[in-house]
Design goal:
- The protein is of the alpha+beta class.
- It is built from four helices and four strands.
- It has helices at residues 2-6, 44-59, 69-74, 76-84; strands at 13-18, 21-27, 32-37, 63-68.
- Strands 1-2-3-4 form a four-stranded mixed sheet, with helices on both faces.
- Strand 3, helix 2 and strand 4 (63-68) form a beta-alpha-beta unit.
- It is globular.
Protein backbone atom coordinates (compact mmCIF):
# COMPACT_ATOMS: atom_id res chain seq x y z
CA UNK A 1 0.00 0.00 0.00
CA UNK A 2 2.85 2.40 0.70
CA UNK A 3 4.00 2.28 -2.94
CA UNK A 4 0.45 2.99 -4.07
CA UNK A 5 0.20 6.00 -1.75
CA UNK A 6 3.62 7.25 -2.91
CA UNK A 7 2.48 6.96 -6.53
CA UNK A 8 -0.15 9.61 -5.86
CA UNK A 9 2.60 12.20 -6.19
CA UNK A 10 1.39 14.15 -3.17
CA UNK A 11 3.16 14.50 0.17
CA UNK A 12 2.23 11.66 2.48
CA UNK A 13 3.40 10.24 5.79
CA UNK A 14 3.47 6.64 6.93
CA UNK A 15 2.44 6.17 10.57
CA UNK A 16 1.73 9.84 11.09
CA UNK A 17 1.15 10.97 14.67
CA UNK A 18 -2.01 12.92 15.44
CA UNK A 19 -2.09 12.76 19.22
CA UNK A 20 -2.98 10.35 20.67
CA UNK A 21 -3.34 8.34 17.45
CA UNK A 22 -0.89 6.98 14.90
CA UNK A 23 -2.47 7.02 11.46
CA UNK A 24 -1.50 4.24 9.06
CA UNK A 25 -1.03 6.78 6.26
CA UNK A 26 -1.74 10.48 6.12
CA UNK A 27 -1.97 13.04 3.38
CA UNK A 28 -1.28 15.97 5.71
CA UNK A 29 -1.86 18.74 3.15
CA UNK A 30 -5.35 17.38 2.43
CA UNK A 31 -5.88 16.23 6.04
CA UNK A 32 -6.85 12.75 4.86
CA UNK A 33 -6.13 9.76 7.09
CA UNK A 34 -5.95 6.35 5.42
CA UNK A 35 -6.53 3.52 7.85
CA UNK A 36 -5.80 -0.07 6.80
CA UNK A 37 -7.92 -2.32 9.01
CA UNK A 38 -7.16 -5.93 9.91
CA UNK A 39 -9.52 -8.47 11.52
CA UNK A 40 -9.49 -6.89 14.98
CA UNK A 41 -11.24 -3.82 13.56
CA UNK A 42 -14.32 -5.87 12.64
CA UNK A 43 -15.14 -7.04 16.16
CA UNK A 44 -17.73 -5.23 18.25
CA UNK A 45 -14.99 -3.61 20.32
CA UNK A 46 -12.94 -2.72 17.23
CA UNK A 47 -15.89 -1.11 15.45
CA UNK A 48 -16.71 1.02 18.51
CA UNK A 49 -13.07 2.01 18.99
CA UNK A 50 -12.76 3.00 15.33
CA UNK A 51 -16.00 4.99 15.50
CA UNK A 52 -14.66 6.96 18.47
CA UNK A 53 -11.25 7.45 16.85
CA UNK A 54 -12.83 8.63 13.60
CA UNK A 55 -15.08 11.09 15.42
CA UNK A 56 -12.14 12.59 17.30
CA UNK A 57 -10.02 12.91 14.15
CA UNK A 58 -12.92 14.45 12.22
CA UNK A 59 -13.39 16.95 15.04
CA UNK A 60 -9.81 18.05 14.33
CA UNK A 61 -10.59 18.50 10.63
CA UNK A 62 -9.35 15.15 9.32
CA UNK A 63 -11.21 13.01 6.80
CA UNK A 64 -10.79 9.35 7.69
CA UNK A 65 -11.00 6.71 4.97
CA UNK A 66 -10.70 3.00 5.70
CA UNK A 67 -9.94 -0.13 3.78
CA UNK A 68 -9.57 -3.78 4.67
CA UNK A 69 -6.01 -5.03 5.00
CA UNK A 70 -6.67 -7.95 2.66
CA UNK A 71 -7.93 -5.57 -0.07
CA UNK A 72 -4.87 -3.35 0.35
CA UNK A 73 -2.58 -6.37 -0.03
CA UNK A 74 -4.38 -7.89 -3.02
CA UNK A 75 -4.97 -4.68 -4.99
CA UNK A 76 -3.27 -1.66 -3.38
CA UNK A 77 -3.70 0.71 -6.33
CA UNK A 78 -7.35 -0.18 -6.93
CA UNK A 79 -8.17 -0.04 -3.22
CA UNK A 80 -6.53 3.35 -2.84
CA UNK A 81 -8.31 4.71 -5.92
CA UNK A 82 -11.69 3.55 -4.57
CA UNK A 83 -11.27 4.99 -1.10
CA UNK A 84 -9.75 8.31 -2.13
CA UNK A 85 -11.82 9.07 -5.24
CA UNK A 86 -14.43 11.08 -3.28
CA UNK A 87 -11.71 13.06 -1.48
CA UNK A 88 -9.14 14.04 -4.07
CA UNK A 89 -8.32 13.70 -7.76
CA UNK A 90 -5.86 10.91 -8.51
CA UNK A 91 -3.27 10.88 -11.28
Amino acid sequence: MEKAVAALGVPYRFQHLVMPYILDFALPDQMVAIEVDGPSHFTTKGVESDRERTAKLEARGWTVVRCRNEDAVKDPVGTLARILAPHMPLK
